[in-house]
């Protein structure tokens, strides 16, 4: 199986997806038959490494495939997109972990859910970590063969992670944006052309600045809350 025609295969499922959109909304989950049908198109392979039978599908093709799903049900599209993104993260893990993910019973069609907002805390203990906490997000967990959980590493006494880490992240993002803005300004009107790399880079850095983990204002506020002795547990401000 390759990714040739994957958009067309997904488009053929649009009536099924639309027909079950209300069920997805009422049940708070993607219906099983929709999830299984999408798996049959190979959409879960799009970010799986080729050595495991994955596609490494170009981003533009992925966007087109998700758009076809969204035309029938936005929630189903979001869940499918999330799994594709988490599979991309899983492909960055050590080889031993990737073998576990991608050579199991489902092979490259494995479905990996993800909770990327760290609602839990990991405290060092006896050579490992004790993880405690909860998260309001668990996208894709109903059909997941694996689920990626995230936790913020705290000090051994359980105190929250250092605010300066978030402050540094926000500062670095701001400096990157300033550098890109300078390059775009120096390029003049030519930076507006779609085939000029700085146009894409400028768009991407502006989008990154809106993400809560990198937004300068959000991270600086979290740092300020830590310095003020206020609970910093506000991932979205």
Describe the structure.
It is a single chain. By secondary structure, the protein is mostly helical. It has three domains: 6-108, Acyl-CoA dehydrogenase/oxidase, N-terminal domain (Butyryl-Coa Dehydrogenase, subunit A, domain 1), CATH 1.10.540; 112-153, no CATH class; 163-227. It has helices at 6-12, 14-19, 21-27, 32-40, 59-70, 74-90, 95-102, 163-187, 197-208, 216-227, and strands at residues 112-125, 128-133, 146-153. Strands 2-1-3 form a three-stranded mixed sheet. Helix 8 (163-187) packs antiparallel against helix 9 (197-208). It starts with 5 loop residues before the first helix and ends in a 10-residue tail after the last helix. The mean pLDDT is 84.
In short:
With 237 residues, the protein is mostly helical.
CATH topology of the largest domain: Butyryl-Coa Dehydrogenase, subunit A, domain 1
Our Rg estimate from Cα atoms comes to: 21 Å
Q: Spatial order of the strands in the main sheet?
A: 2-1-3
CATH architecture of the largest domain: Orthogonal Bundle
Domain count: the total is 3
How would a textbook summarize the main sheet? Answer: 3 strands, mixed
Q: Which CATH class of the largest domain is shown?
A: Mainly Alpha
Alpha plus pi helix count: 10
Number of strands: 3
Name the CATH homologous superfamily of the largest domain.
Acyl-CoA dehydrogenase/oxidase, N-terminal domain
**N-end to C-end Cα span:** 44 Å
What class, by secondary structure content? Answer: mainly alpha
Q: From N to C, what is the helix and strand string?
A: HHHHHHHEEEHHH
Helix share bin: 40-55%
Gross morphology is globular
